[in-house]
Structure formats: structure tokens, C-alpha cells
Amino acid sequence: MANSPNLSSNILAKEQSAYLRQHASNPVHWVPWAEDHFTSAKENDRLIIISIGYAACHWCHVMEHESFEDEIVAQLMNDNFVSIKVDREERPDVDHVYMQALQLLTGQGGWPLNIVALPDGRPVWGGTYFPKDQWMHYLQQIVQLQKENPEKLLAYASQLNEGMQQLELEKHKDQQAVTANDLAKAVNDIYQKLDLKNGGMQGAPKFMMPTLLELFTASDDYTEHLRLSLDKMALGGLFDVLRGGFSRYSVDERWHIPHFEKMGYDNGQLLYIYSEAFLTQASPLYKEVVEKTVDFLQEDLHNGTGGYYASLDADSLNKNGQLEEGAFYVWTKNELEELALLQQPHFSSYYGINQDGLWEKDNYVFFRKQALEDYKYKHELNDNFNTQVALWETRLLEARNKRSKPRLDDKIICSWNALIGSGLLRAYRAFGNEDYARLAKNNLDYIFKHLHSSQGGLYRLNKKEAPVVHGFLEDYSALIRFYLDAYECFFDPIYLTHVRHLIDYCFTHFLDSQSPLFVFSAKEKLVVETREINDNVIPSSNAMMAENLLRASVHIGKPEWSEHAQKMLATVAEEMYNYPRAYSYWLRTALNEQKKQREIVIVGPKALDWIREIQQQPLENTRWAASTVASNLPLLQNRFKANITQVYICENNQCGLPLRSVEEAKIALGLT
Asked: Which of 170-179, 271-280, 306-315 shows the lowest per-residue confidence on average (mean pLDDT)?
């Protein structure tokens, strides 16, 4: 059979995406997402294969090895299709559209996401991972159908596209009141599905779901379950006890065996949550998690100039030079004996080198049943055990670092960096560690220098100091939140200037013409215009935007922003009530909005020192403002007096008389 006419051979080697470059040597004539390739497909009457994944995706690698590296499979694809590879982290808009199509087709989702579409991009068939024989079988059937009955494909594409359009229209429902009773019912629905033994939600695989953990922080009903979840996650194999950092999810119910990929967005959000939890429960385990997670971010994901890379792969080279999931992280008893560790008292018991920690192929994944301090107490050990554990971890790390490391995805993604930056700021507020503040400021500087465009918008990501792809709503929402967090940490008004600018930009370029929601992409129009409202591992971009508008309206004095956020909440109210797990960040925002809103404002020469001291207390639902000079910001205006530091405690912008000491403020806040 002849090669595809007018198509280049595999040109992905020229791409900046690590995921696309992973496929550069495939015999499949992959091309990147671009309008030219749709035009080529139309001119040559070819269907399109749209194959979507990401660099750390294990099953993407499996399918690549089984199918896309196979000459016979490649010939079938090259002779009959235009094959487009898409990095879902680079183009989440494309991923959203075709994931929605897959869910309509099969009721399921996941990656690799493989879609067959007409030359105009409308999908007709899809699935996730396929073994080689299945993949070829389905493609051959579709090729035959196109030759014998192309009208059937056209009709099916129209029907599926209509269904996708209808799903988007349903997001424009009439607004519904957000009530305390309905919110309580939604929260209770989630409560019924909690895993009361292991934390998190019932079942496996078990995702950490930071958006759900954030909901737990907003509801008194979840306090104990939040602690259980955070404890179990930190003690299980999901958390890398040697270097720090969490893997993406656990394949079992007890958080033991991870899917070993480490994602920047997970670790940024968990850094935030563990730091916040430390304020209410000063657990040494939470401090360990924060310190080691920051170490992981700096050692493994930091680019050296303030930015953070996207992820580490689940796979790495084993002793035989073959890619194997988890090879970098697991241990055999022989390896531990060579390090003279198994014979040391308490080593096996502490790290679970027994049936608790055994995985497969005689490999062990460390699995602690107790935190360090609890283990010491149970076994009546003194602080010398802390030193012993530190020596063990040093020896283990030295040995592990001689192994082949997991592959790095060196994209620097705007929204993920903002999530990491917010986590660093929360860690700084909880622990007072100036290094965390320095790292967050460096990240802020990097984002401003490399991801703000000269046209006033944002870029999605940066590669080798070159911006790539215009930003999506997720990038704007996460970065606005980061700037708000930065203001409430450092109290430099420049961050509020950035907030105002980016919110104005979103209203101009992203606002939906049919609802109070914002569309996901302001640039390229795909077969369906999407409005992201479902919370997943990352909060939905609209949920973050609603929260941003509520916070920013107080700081910048824009009550219309708060009113708009209320309309957004009302627009998704029915979904919140009916599908609370998929709207957990919306629920958190709505629950907080039902509570009293507190503002703590400190002005005067000691304002920054005082506010840092008060911020290390567990105060929820609080807006913070401080200044050592006179300011025209709404919360600060007309409150500055030279040589006097004063604290104003306000609720819903109604303030009491100024207080003249931190001690008075703590008493008024019920902290002593």
C-alpha cells in the first residue's frame, strides 16, 4: 500500500512537548494539532485519529509500545488516516472536547484517549487503551465503513455532536437559590460514600482528590475524616517517604501501591492542604509531609529560575534496562540486606518490610502504620530513634539515586505553577519558614516574566524560556488565586493590580454570552465550545473564578464581582445538589459564602509582624489586609495613623473599634 499522500513523516521531534517527542521515532506519521492537518485530511478524504495523552501516562506508554511502534499498525494508520498526537496538558481544551465525546460514547474516560473523527473534527468513535489486535480490528472496521457507507459515519458524527452541544447548553440552566438546607443534603450525600477505615472515598483506585479534601476543611462534619485521610495518605506508599511528594493515585483501598507518576498539580494542592491542616492540628507528620514535599519540588521539578516542571513519569529503567512502572521506588529484601538495613532493630517494622508492604515480584513499597512520634511512643523509644530514621533515609536515598530516574516532563504550566505557588505560601504562613516565602516569590517573578503576554493575557506554558499556547481559563483562575494569596501573605498592592487586570481580561475575553459562566478557551474554536464546571483533581476553572471574584471584590471594592459570583453559584446549584462529588469545590465555596465573612485589617509600623503572628492561628473564611503606610485600598482607606499600629476586626465589612495589640486581637478572635 502507498504512503499517505501529501503528509509529512513523523515530525514530532520538532515539538517542545515531551509527550509528543516520546512518539517522534514511531513509524506512525504523527503530526501535531494544527489546522493545516485538518485541511489535508479533507483534501485527501481521510478520517482523523486524535490520540491524546501526557508524558507521565503509563498506559499511554504501553499502547505506544504495543501498537504505535509496530510497523503493521503504523501502515494501517498511515494509509488510511491523518494521525494527530495531542498533549492533554498542553491543550486541555482539545482534551475536554474529546473526553466529553468519549463519555457520551462509552460512559467512561481515561488516557490514552483515542478518537476517530471526520476531517472537520467531529468525533465518530473512541476509546482509551486498546491492545494491538483490538486497535487494528476497530480501525479496519471504520475504514471499511467509510468506504461502503460514509453517510452512516456522517449521521453518527452529527448525532454525537448534537449530544455534545446539548450537554453544553445544559450548563446554561436557570439560576436556582443556594440554600443552607440543600447544601447540607449535598454534603451528607458525600458523607455516605466515605471510607471510614482508610480515609478518602470508598473503593479503588483511590485518588487523593484535593478538591474533596478542601471541602472537608469547610465543613465541621468532616474534621475527623480529614485527619484520617491526611494521616493514611501520608503513611501509605502513595507518599514518597524518602524524597517526598505524592504519586497520582493508589491502586488499592489503603493508599499502599501508587500509580507512581508524580504530578505538580497534586503536590502543590496537597502542600496547601497539609499546611492548612497543621494550623488546627500541629501534627509532626504533617510537618514532615510539607518539608519533604517542598524538597521534592525543589530537587525534582524546579527549573532553577523559579519555575516548576510538570511531572515525573511512572516508568523508569529497571536493572535490565527496560522501562518498568515503579522501578525507581521499590525495594527487594536482597537490596535492603546489601545496605545492612534488615538486621537493624525496627527497620522492617517501621517501613512495613513484611506482608503489609509486599507488592509483587518480591518488591516492597514502604508502608508505615504509624507516624514517627506514635511509633516511638508505642515501642518506648527515645529521640535517638529520630536520628536512626534519618540515617536510614540517607542511606536509602543514596542507593536509590544510583538508579535510573523517572523521565521528566519539562513543561512549565501556568496553572500548575500557580497551584504550587499557593501551596508554598500556605506553608510559609503555617510554619514561618522564610525559605518557603522566597520560593513562592521566585515563582511569582518567573510567572510574571515568562507567562504574561505583551497583549495583556497569559500563556499556558513555557518551554526553554519560550511561551507556548495561549492561556486557558484554568490558567487565569489559578493565577488570580495565587496573586490573591500572595497579597494576603506579603501585602504588596502590586498583586491586587495583577488581580484586577486578569479579572478584567477574563470578563472581556472569556465571559459566556449565554450565562454568568466563563468559556474555557478564548482563542481557537473547536467543534464544541466548552465551559468547564466539573471539579476533578484540580478545581474547575469556573469554580476557582467564582471564589476569586468573591475574594477580590472585598480587596478591590467591586461589589459587582461578588454579585456575579453569586450568579455563577446559582447557575450550577442544581448540579451541586445532584452530583456533589463532581462539584466539591463549588460546594466548598458555597458553604463558606453561607458563613460569616471576616476581615482582619492591620495598619501601622508593626502591621506585617502582627498579621504574620495572627495568621498562624486557625482562622477560617478570613480576608486579610495590612499596610505600614497609608493606602487607598478599600479595607485600608482612612485607617492609617503614623506611629500607631491598630487591628480592625470586621465582619461583612462592618468593623469594630481598633485594637492596639496582638493580644487584644487574639482575645477578640477567641484564640486565647
From this structure: 170-179
323 belongs to a structural domain: no
Amino acid at 113: L
**% of the chain at pLDDT higher than 70:** 98
- Burial code (b: 16+ CB inside 10 Å, e: under 16) for 413-423 equals bbbbbbbbbbb
Q: Is the pLDDT of residue 3 over 90?
A: no
pLDDT of 543 higher than 90 = yes
Query: Which of 554, 570, 594 finishes a domain?
Result: 594
Going by C-beta distance under 8 Å and a sequence separation of 6 or more, which residues neighbour residue 642?
none
Q: What are phi and psi of 356, to 5 degrees?
A: -60, -40
Q: 391 and 414 share a domain?
A: no
Residue 278 CA to residue 618 CA, distance in Å, equals: 9
What is the rounded distance in angstroms from the CA atom of residue 672 to the CA atom of residue 660?
16
Query: For 286, which DSSP code?
Result: H
Positive or negative, the CA dihedral 278, 284, 287, 292 is negative
Write the DSSP string, 88-110. TTT-HHHHHHHHHHHHHHHS---
Please report whether residue 324 resides in a domain.
no
Give yes or no: residues 426 and 523 share one domain. yes
- Say which residue the cell 471564589 belongs to: 547
Q: Cβ(289)–Cβ(244) under 8 Å?
A: yes
Number of domains observed in the structure of the chain:
4
Query: What is the per-residue pLDDT for 9?
Result: 54
Check if the beta carbon of residue 555 is closer than 8 Å to that of residue 503: no
Alpha-helical segments (H) within 149-199: 150-169, 180-191
How far apart CA 220 and CA 239 sit, in angstroms, is 26
Residue 554: inside a domain: yes
Residue 64 belongs to what domain range?
Answer: 12-170
311-312 and 622-627 as β-strands: parallel, antiparallel, unpaired? Answer: unpaired
Query: Residue 508 and residue 424: Cα distance in Å, rounded?
Result: 31
Q: Are residues 398 and 429 in the same domain?
A: no
Would you state the cell numbers that stand for residue 146, as one nine-digit string?
467509510
463 forms bridges with which residues in the sheet? 466
561 and 415 both lie in a single domain = yes
Residues 334 and 256 in one domain: no
| Mean pLDDT in residue range 528-556 | 96
CA-CA-CA-CA torsion sign (352, 355, 358, 364):
positive
Say yes or no: 157 and 105 in one domain. yes
Cβ atoms 13, 21 nearer than 8 A: yes
Is the alpha carbon torsion for 128, 131, 136, 138 positive or negative?
A: negative
* Local structure of 514: helix, strand or coil: coil
Domain boundary among 546, 578, 594: 594
Task: Note whether 115 and 255 are same-domain residues.
Answer: no
Distances (CA, A) of 98 to 21, 28, 36, 62: 22, 21, 19, 21
Is residue 24 situated within a structural domain? yes
Please check whether residue 469 is in contact with residue 91, taking contact to mean a CB–CB distance below 8 angstroms.
yes
Radius of gyration of the chain (CA): 26
> How many Å apart are CA 620 and CA 104, to the nearest integer?
40
Indicate if the pLDDT at residue 517 is higher than 80. Answer: yes
Burial class (CB in 10 A: 0-12, 13-18, 19+), 520: buried
357 in the same domain as 474: no
Q: How far is CA 306 from CA 207, 272, 476, 592, in A?
A: 28, 18, 19, 33
Owner of C-alpha cell 474516560: 109
Report the distance separating Cα 660 and Cα 667, nearest Å.
12
Instruction: Assign residue 92 the CATH number of its domain.
Output: 3.40.30.10
Per-residue CA distances from 254 to 249, 369, 556 (Å): 11, 11, 45
SS3 category, 85: strand
> Could you report the per-residue pLDDT of 370-393, keeping only the tens digit for each?
999 999 999 999 999 999 999 999
